[in-house]
Give the backbone structure.
Amino acid sequence: MLQPLDSELSQRYTLLHSLSAAVNERERSEYNTTLPCLALLVGLTAGLIAAPAPLQAQTAAPAPAQTESYAPESGQPGKDVVWVPTPDTLVERMLDMAKATPQDFLIDLGSGDGRTVIAAAQRGLKAHGIEYNPEMVTLSQRRAQAAGVADRATFVKADIFESDFSKAQVITLFLLPELNERLRPQILELEPGTRIVSNSFRMGDWEPDRTDRVEGCNQWCTAHLWLVPAKVEGSWRLGEQELKLAQKYQMLTGTLGTTPIENGRLDGKQISFTAGGVAYTGTVAGTSMSGSTSGGSAANWTATKS
Ligand SMILES: C[S@@+](CC[C@H](N)C(=O)[O-])C[C@H]1O[C@@H](n2cnc3c(N)ncnc32)[C@H](O)[C@@H]1O
């Protein structure tokens, strides 16, 4: 059994281990088909172990300035996760799932070679990539220039865990489950209705609002969508009654008066629930919400946070 010799090697083993531990059954079968890239990584690691000290020193030296022929390798190390590109077909599906429009600002967290940001810019969005590897940032900028979208597709060399992404209406990511979970508290503070689309990996116990898989795609072919839910937990005055809501992400339970509510959920700012056979739908706006009912006597309703 090979043992890591220094922290860089140890990090690579950790990344390999994290990736392999993270994938669920379907993703695991996809992941198995990535063996060539993992073999590359293992080979690289083994090569470093076997290499004499000067090679290890060279590997640790700063990267040379990028030339136009710079070509990243799938599986190459990254700060918290390796670079593996999202298939172009899934990039397009992720933008479709987010219902991305030219009015949206998209941020890709860990933007790799810039493909998601560039595809979004080609749809007319302003889009921004945050990427730790400066070589990949330069490559992305060159690719955006070549695609004629450099005015709408921008990139920064930064750590996603030290970045503000609160201005985005659409966030895309292809990281790891534990990294998604680390980002989740920040994501849940975003404007309600912000769309989050992740290649393959989920957000812990926050169930996706939608999951899609593209056909005719070999690996990393599944994406999950979440809408950041409005915050509605607590007591509300709805007409003469008290509406008490408990919230777990987009799922709601509670009572209207003494009647339990059913099918309670949020789709961003849109709230829906049923109480006593009456279906309530509405829109949340901070400490008030309003909408209409159906299934009983059709009426408009408003509620105010107590
Ligand atoms: C799996 S790749 C995904 C690339 C791109 N989003 C895509 O879907 O094709 C993950 C990327 O995140 C970058 N990365 C890893 N840790 C990071 C961090 N802490 N901050 C910013 N970028 C990071 C890696 O360099 C890599 O390019």
